[in-house]
Amino acid sequence: MKKIYFLILSSFLLFTSCKTDEKIEAVEAESPFVNFNIDAVPYAKLSTYSFFTGDLKNLNPSKKVIPYEPASSLFTDYALKKRFIWMPEGTKSVYDGDAKTLNFPVGTVLIKNFYYNTVQPNNTTRIIETRLMIKKSSGWIFAEYLWNDEQTEANLVTGTDFTSGSSKSITFKKSNNDVITTDYRIPSESECYACHKLDNQPIPIGVKPQNLNVSYNYPNGMKNQLQKLVDEGYLQGYPANIVSTVDYRDTSKPLDLRFRSYLDANCAHCHQDNARCDYRAIRLNFNQTTNLANLGVCVTADEPVDASLQKIISPGNHNKSVMNYRLTSVDESNRMPLLGRTVVHDEGVQLVQQWINSLTQPCN
C-alpha cells in the first residue's frame, strides 16, 4: 500500500513540477515585453505598461522599447530627456517626407521622460514627469504621468489636475555651475494640444526623418536612428538623401544650419501653416528657412514692441530684433516659446544673437 501511495505521489509531483516549469517559462518569456491593451490605456500607473525593466527610475527599456534622440532638442527649462518608441508587434511606420512626422501605426506609444541630474543640494537625479503620446484608432491622445518623491512610480494625472496643469519647484545646477530655482511647469491637456496641434489634430513633434537621420549610441554600438528603426521592424524604409537638421550645440557645423535647426526644434511646431501661430508672419520649419523672409529677416513684426523693435530680425543687430527680445523675456505676455519655458535658454539665445549679428545685408 505504501509503495502504491509513493508511486502516485511521485507521479503527482512530477506532473505538477512539469506544469510549474511551464508556468515559469511562460512568465520569463513574457516579462521583457510591454503590457499594452489599446482599449484599456492610459493606465493609472506608468509601471503597468512594463516599458522598463528593473527599478522604474533607471528607465532601462524593455525589449522593443527603442530609445531615440532628435538632432536638436526642444528646450524645457534645462530638463534632460530620455525618449523611447514602442509599437505593437507586426506593425511598421512609414516615411512620409523629410519634414513630416513618421506615419505611425495604431498602437504606437512615444515615451518622453523629463529629469534633472543636478538637483540641489546634493546633485541628485530626479525624474519630474513622463509624457506619453498614444495613437488610437481615433488619433493621438496625451497621457501625463507625475513621479512620486520616492521615484518608485509615476501616476496618471487626471481630472482637474490635467485640466489646469501644475508646477513643481526645483533647484538645480547648470553646466556652468549657476544654481537656478524655478517652478517647473507640468502641462495641462490643453497646453499639450497647443504645441502638438496641426490641422486641429494632435500630432507628435520631434519624430521626423530630418531629426532622426543621425547616429545614436545604442548598447550594441553607434547606428543611424532611422536604420535602427528599420532593423527593429519599426520602419519600412527611408531615402538616402534626407535633408537633415544638426545638433545646434555642435560648433563644427555651419552657423546657419545650427541656427535653423534650433528654431525648427523650438519654434517650428507653432510657426507653420495650420498650427497655433500660423497667423504670424514667419515659417520656421527647417525645410522653409533657407528663405530669409520666412525667418523674419527685415520683416515687420505682427506686434512690434516699440519704435526701436519693429523687425523680427534686424540684420547685424540683435538688440533691434523682436526675435531676440521674445527669447530673452520671461514675461508670459512677451516670451517665446509661450509654453515649456520659465527661464532664459542662455546657450540658445547666444546662438540666435550670433546668427543675427552675422548678417551684413541691411533692410531696404
Write up what this structure looks like.
With 364 residues, the chain is of the alpha+beta class. The protein folds into 2 domains: 186 residues, no CATH class; 104 residues, no CATH class. The chain has 9 helices and 14 strands. A 6-stranded antiparallel sheet has the order 3-4-5-6-7-8, covered by helices on one side. Strands 1-2 form a two-stranded antiparallel ribbon. It has a two-stranded antiparallel sheet with strand order 9-10. Helix 6 crosses helix 9. The N terminus is likely disordered.
Offer a concise description of the structure.
With 364 residues, the protein is α+β, with helices and mostly antiparallel strands. The chain has helices at 2-30, 159-164, 189-195, 209-212, 225-231, 255-266, 292-295, 322-328, 346-358; strands at 52-53, 60-61, 66-68, 80-86, 109-119, 124-136, 139-147, 154-156, 166-173, 179-186, 197-198, 201-202, 215-218, 221-224. Residues 1-31 have low confidence and may be disordered.
Order of helices and strands: HEEEEEEEEHEEHEEHEEHHHHH
Beta-strand fraction estimate? 15-25%
Give the helix/strand class: alpha+beta
Number of self-contained structural domains? 2
The biggest beta sheet reads: 6 strands, antiparallel
Protein name: Repeat protein (TIGR03806 family)
Organism: Chryseobacterium formosus
Question: Which key phrases capture this entry?
Answer:
disordered N terminus, alpha+beta, 364 residues, six-stranded antiparallel sheet
What topology does this entry show?
Layout: H1 2-30, E1 52-53, E2 60-61, E3 66-68, E4 80-86, E5 109-119, E6 124-136, E7 139-147, E8 154-156, H2 159-164, E9 166-173, E10 179-186, H3 189-195, E11 197-198, E12 201-202, H4 209-212, E13 215-218, E14 221-224, H5 225-231, H6 255-266, H7 292-295, H8 322-328, H9 346-358
Antiparallel strand pairs: 1-2, 3-4, 4-5, 5-6, 6-7, 7-8, 9-10, 11-12, 13-14
Helix pairs in contact: 6-9
